[in-house]
Amino acid sequence: MKVVTGVVGNDIHVVANRLIEISLKERGFTVFNLGVNTYLEEFLDAIVETDADVLLISSLNGEAEGWCRDLQILKKQYTFRKDVVFMIGGNLGVGEMDPDALVPKFKNYGFDLVFHQVDLNVGLDTLENYLKAHA
């Protein structure tokens, strides 16, 4: 399984990004890490170029919503397999927000799996279970 990963927008949490890459590789995934400060269009280009099975976007600074709200629109402009899993995790909100509203909001943006302040291993376990269930 191929995964495109990286940090969205103006977020520079390089250490967590590296931990995600290492954890994915330890689980047997082939990883294409785009690094930090990555635009949504760059992620979608990478899905096409690598024929990835999964896109795993991370955010720590809480500004992912501003960078990801156009995912549904952008997905229509690209040609990639219909079974690509779109996943986002990290700290997905800042300031006064309702944490319980974040998951449905990001799913509405076009993400299949959404993890706000969830342990990395829990998120990756859920991804693997999701992939098995949808195989």
Question: How does this structure look, described?
Answer:
With 135 residues, the protein is α/β, with parallel strands linked by helices. The protein has a single domain, classed as Rossmann fold (3-Layer(aba) Sandwich), CATH 3.40.50.280. Helices cover 44% and strands 19% of the residues. It has six helices and five strands. It has helices at 14-26, 40-50, 64-68, 71-75, 99-109, 120-133; strands at 2-7, 30-33, 54-59, 85-90, 113-116. The chain has a five-stranded parallel sheet, sandwiched between helices. The relative contact order is 0.18. The model has no long low-confidence stretch (mean pLDDT 93).
Q: What structural class should be given to the helix and strand makeup?
A: alpha/beta
Question: Residue share in helices?
Answer: 40-55%
Strand content: 15-25%
Strand order of the largest sheet: 2-1-3-4-5
Instruction: Name the CATH superfamily classification.
Output: Cobalamin-binding domain
Radius of gyration, taken over Cα atoms and rounded to an integer in Å: 13 Å
Number of strands: 5
Give the integer mean of the pLDDT values. Answer: 93
Number of helices: 6
The CATH class designation is Alpha Beta
